[in-house]
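Supplementary Methods, section 5.1.

A reviewer requested that the exact input to the structure prediction be made available. We therefore reproduce it here, unchanged from the version used in the analyses.
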Amino acid sequence: MMLSALIFVLVVGGVLAWIGERWHRDAPRWIALLATLIELALAIALWLQHPGEVVPTAHGAWLAETSVAWIPRFGISYHLALDGISLLLVALTALLGVVSVACSWREIQSGIGFFHLNLCLTLAGAVGVFLALDLFLFFFLWELMLVPMYFLIAIWGHERRRYASIKFFIFTQGSGLLMLLSIVALVFVRHRATGVFSFDYFDLLHVAMTPTVEMWMMLGFFVAFAVKLPAFPLHVWLPDAHTEAPTAGSVILAGVLLK
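The structure derived from this sequence is encoded token-by-token as follows.
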């Protein structure tokens, strides 16, 4: 329940911030700030609740885990888990979320509600990526993290924001497509061997395949993550995205998305 709350607090906060602009001009700012503070409080509560304690499960030892069937026909589940590293990353995301809301308080003067919706969705996607153990869910949250960032750059960026946002979109979505193809291929290789569909990371971890297939799948994942890092020579989108993004966007890019 707590793991789901880490994602949905930000999603709900973003939606309320978007709607809240109808009530008062500053309402989106206060709602987004409250959502990120709640997120930070939840991360601290999880740390206090599990100070180094792990829960043994069939898939290893975790501080917390939740798994619910989502689309059983295709072996897709809502599977989240938390360990020490992901807890630190979630706490970092929440802290930088508070910082990004604060530093955009006076900078953003138009589309305030929609801005904070995209900011909260970006943070929610990042938190979900740190927790997801189902690869379909992981990809969904990966896109939830990147698409709102495109809008943050394209709408509230600086003078060359259109150029920077298009470059960001092409690189991230192109590499995301390669990752999706690799995930689907991995699932079908396992299905051919077992007759069962599954997107669960641990089910796919030991799938037997030929070296050639392994190489192509690895290449798809490698390019997707190398673009996201970003690693040379796939880093060319980052300087423009950083310089043209609003301050909050740069904070999230540097502090969260590149992790």
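The longest strand covers residues 64-71. These observations are discussed further in the main text.
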